Amino acid sequence: MCYFFSYVFTCQALADSNDVFNVVLGSTYKHDSNVFRLSSGLQPAGAGAQRWDNILRTDLGFKINKNYSLQTFKIDYAYVLTKYNNAKFLDFNASNYKAAWLWSVTPSLKGNLSADRKVEIINYQDYRTTDSKNIRTTQAKGFDFDWSPHNNWHLLGGYTMMDSINSQTFLPETSFKLNMIDSGIMYSFSSASYVALKLRHSNAENQTVNFASFIGKGYIENEGVLNAFWALTGKSRVSSFFGYDIHTDKTFSLRDYSGYIGDINYAWDMSSKTNLTIDLSRKLSSFQTDYSSYSVLDTLSIKPTWSVTPKIIVGLNGQISKRDYLGNGPITSLKRVDNSLSYGMTIDWAPRNAMMLGINAQYTDRGSNAVDATYSDFMAGINGKLIF
Question: Which end of the chain is more exposed for a tag (fewer CB within 10 A), N or C?
C-alpha cells in the first residue's frame, strides 16, 4: 500500500484526456469492524476469522475509448485481488470487464451493443454461513436501440441475456439464467427533459432447484415503468421512475408476488460549490425462505457535497431503510422486518486529472425482529487510483 502511494506521487506518465488507451492502477485498504454482520456477542466459525478484519483490494486494468465517425468503442477491464488479514479463506481474485459499442447508423438511429462481467463476494447481511465465502459471478450481454425519426418522439427496444452464478448454494437468491426483452416510447423536450413508458418481459431459469424448500424451475416477470427527467431550473433537476412488477413462479404459486416499484431523485446545486441530492425509492426482489417469497425495500437517502477547492470534495451521506419480507413461506409465518440506519463521510482529492485519493468512513446499524439478524458495523478506508 505504501509503495502504491509513493508511486502515485512520483509517476510522471500521467494520462491525457484524449488518450485512446490508458492503464489503471488502484488500491483500497479498509477496516471492517463486523465483516460477517453478526449480532453482538457472536463469533464467526471460519478458520482464523474474527469479527473484524482489514481488507486490501488491488485493481490493475486498462481502459479503451475510441471514437470513429459516428461510432464509439469502450472497454474497461480490471484484474482484482482481494486479501483479508484474518479470514484468509475469504481471499479471492476476479476478472471484471465492461465492453460496449455505442453504434449509430444516423443521428436519429443509435444504440448500444454491450457485454459485462462482475465477480464479487456476497455480503453477509444476507448470506449467513460464516465459515465459507459465496462468490457471485454475473455476466450480461445486451443490445438496445433508440430510433427518433421525428426528433421528439423515440421508439425504444432491447434484448438482454444474463447469467448469475453463486459459488455456494444460496436458496434465498439462487443462481439463474435470464432472457429479457424491453420495449417503449419516449418524448424528449428541447430542455433535455423527457418522459418515457417502458415495458419489460423476463424469462428466468433457476440453476438450483430444491422442491423440498419450494425453489422451483424459474419465473416469468412482467414490468411496466414510467420514466421521467425534469430540468426544473438551471440549478435543480428531478429524475424518477414509477412502475408495477408482476413475478410469476413456474412451479410454485406460493412464490408469486406483485407490487409497485419506484424511485424519485432530486438534485439541487445550492451554490457553485455545494450540492444536495435526496433519493426516495422502493424495490421488490425475490427472497425465497421458509418465511418469505420476496422482500420490499423502502429507502430514503440524503447526500450533500461540498467542493472545498476544485480538487477537493467533501461528501456526507445518510440513509434510512425498511425491508419487509413478504409472501407466504412454506413453513413459518414469521413477518420479518429489518430497519437500518447508515451514515458516513468521504473526502476525495484529485491533485491531477489522472490521480485520485480518498478516505471514507461509514457506520451501519440494523434492527430486526428475526433471531440474530441485528448488527452494527463500522468501516473506514483509504483508496487511491492512478491512470496513465
Answer: N
